[in-house]
Every structure is written in C-alpha cells, then in structure tokens.
Amino acid sequence: MAARAGVGRGTASRVLNGSSQVSAQAKAAVEAAIEELGYVPNRAARSLVTQRTDSVALVVSESQERVFGEPFFAGVLRGINAALLETPLQLWLAMAASPEQRERVEHHLTGQHVDGVLLLSLHDDDPLPAVLRERGMPFVFGGRSARAADSDFSVDVDNSAGARKAVEYLLGNGARRVATIAGPQDMEVGRARLAGYRTAMSGPELVAYGDFSEAGGVKAMRALLDQEPDLDAVFVASDLMASGALRALRDAGLRVPQDVAVIGFEDAPVARQCEPPLTTVHQPVEEMGRRMAELLVCRIRREPVANSHVLLDTHLVRRASA
C-alpha cells in the first residue's frame, strides 16, 4: 500500500492510525491507495504490536426486554456511538442481568478482548466494578453507583435536583397530597429521585415503589390510591412508570390533571404519546452517552480530564398532565 501511494511505510502507518503528523498530499495518496487496493487492517496483528484491541464494551446490567424496550438505553447508546465514530474504537454490547450472564461477561472483559468498559444501570450487588479495578481495566460508570470509588470516572444526571424541582412545581400549583412512585432502591438513581421528592416535601410522605416499567407504574399507582384515595398529585420516577400510572388513574375514573396531576422523569418519546401528554423532567440521555464515551477514550489514552465526575443538568418540560 505504501509503495502504491509513493510514501514510506511509516507515513502510511500514521495515516491508518489517524495521526495528524501527515501532510494533506500524503494523506490523500494513502487514502487513494487504500480505496484502490481494498485494504483492511488486520486487527489481530495490530493488537500484538499496539497492545490494543480497538474495542470497548458497553455492559448493561438489565434484561434484554428492558434494554430493547426502554428508550433510555437507546438514547445512551446513540450518544456513545456518536462519540466513538470519531475514534478507531468498535463498540460491543453485553447484557448482564443474571449471575450466569455476568459470569460470561466477566470472562470476556480482559485486555485481550477490550480496551475499556462502559457500565450502565448497575445494581448495588454488581461485582463488575471491583473485578475491573483488580484487572486494571479502564471503565466509566453511567450513573452513580454505591460501589464507586473516588478514583472512578462517572457521568450522571442530577436526579435528586430534577425530582425536587418536579415536586416543588406540583406544590406550587396548589397540590396538597403529593405522592411518588419511586424506582428500585438497590440502584442509586432510584434512591436519588426519592431523595429529591423528600427534600421538597414538608408534609406527610406517600411512597410506592416500582421497577421503571409500565406495569410497575400501574401496580404502584393502584397501591397509592388504595392507601390515599384523596391524593391530588404524583411524581413518578420514570416516564414508562408514569404512563402506567395514567392508565391506573383512568381506570379509577380520575381525570388528569383536574383530579390528579402527574409528572414523570426522562422526557422519553412515550411522554409525548401519553393521554394527556406527560409533563416530565428532561434528562439529556444522548449527552450522557457521549460524555461517557469521551471519558473512556481519555482513560484508555491516559489523557488528563478536567472533571472525572460529570453531572448533567435537568429541566422540567411542561405538558398537559400537570
């Protein structure tokens, strides 16, 4: 290829590796030779020389039903992919919802297979962070984790502040009995959104728990109505659960927002499709994915970063449900 381009092998190598230390003329000549010869780098051979695999893993500690059924994961994945398009890194996806799946994933997360790992939707009992630290594998948390160390890198949204703003909005509009449907309490995101609700509340709390699914929202909303039929507002820790809560309220003959105001969290597409359209807390999921990938690339390259713990802002999107 170098001979066809009329350049040295070192110049051709620099072009292939994306180096900026190449003239525009040489770069164009090498790219033309690549196209003409149909050259494809041998990743196995390159990894022997560079000690890099040019691959990173996104490990999601959820079932495939959640990963492929909830828009949050698709949004984060779009952001990750957009950031990695600017690098030679390839992304592979693994789901580790069960102990058996987690064990298989652990066996694969070595320097022979990947250069770094992105961790998303971790539960408190997940051993992966400790395993990766022990192996010296660069990794970045998506969201906070009870198992995070000060030296770890993470990207999260300000879940507590977003929840607090939602509840303050409901109280400011005259609600007196504000309930919440909280997320799983073995996840930091679930605890943070419940903490935000509690920070805003000055009166009695009314809490039910769900699993971030629509069915979980239906069940939790029915439990709240059984406990407090006169509640007049509910903050729900995810839009999918909020869509279920709307269904339960409708089944109970209650109008939204006239009888019960509802606010969700995420600003997923389902929020606009609800009836009525859902007021919700917007979280920038694509930016979250992009920033995760950027931090991981810096860790792999051992480049300095201004902030290893990124916290993204949220804001309230007002629609018809509150």
Overview of the molecule:
The chain is an alpha/beta fold and 322 residues long. The chain folds into 3 domains: 2-40; 55-157 and 285-313, Response regulator (Rossmann fold, 3-Layer(aba) Sandwich); 159-282, Response regulator (Rossmann fold). It is 46% helix and 17% strand. Strands 2-1-3-4-5-11 form a 6-stranded parallel sheet, with helices on both faces. Strand 9, helix 13 and strand 10 (279-282) form a beta-alpha-beta unit. Helix 11 (214-227) packs across helix 12. The model has no long low-confidence stretch (mean pLDDT 90).
What is this structure's SSE topology?
Blueprint: H1 2-5, H2 9-16, H3 24-37, H4 43-50, E1 55-60, H5 64-69, H6 71-84, E2 90-95, H7 99-108, E3 116-120, H8 128-135, E4 139-142, E5 153-157, H9 159-172, E6 178-182, H10 188-200, E7 207-209, H11 214-227, E8 233-236, H12 239-251, E9 261-266, H13 269-273, E10 279-282, H14 285-301, E11 309-312, E12 315-317
| CATH superfamily descriptor of the largest domain | Response regulator
Summed up, the domain count is 3
Proportion of residues in β-strands: 15-25%
Q: What shape does the CA trace take?
A: elongated
Portion of residues in helices?
40-55%
| C-alpha end-to-end distance | 64 Å
Elements, N to C (H/E): HHHHEHHEHEHEEHEHEHEHEHEHEE
Mean pLDDT: 90
| CA-based gyration radius | 24 Å
CATH level-1 class of the largest domain:
Alpha Beta
Number of helical segments with 4 or more residues = 14
Oligomer: single chain
